[in-house]
Amino acid sequence: MSTMQIEILNPKAAKLLKDLADLDLISITEESDENEFVKTLNSLRIKSAPSLEEITEEVEAVRSKRHGK
Distance between CA atoms of 21 and 17, rounded to whole angstroms? Predict the structure, then answer.
């Protein structure tokens, strides 16, 4: 089995492909522009990366706890 990516320029070609799929000669899977996994990964990267200010605040809080005891 081989996989191809096809850009449909004419709606008649889409009809022909659907007919081939109906005859079980090909299978059609539609893909979005960006994979869902990639979207999720990118959103996690953005959310999980603390800013420099947040890092500095945390470091100062830990230092003050250490030196305060």
Answer: 6
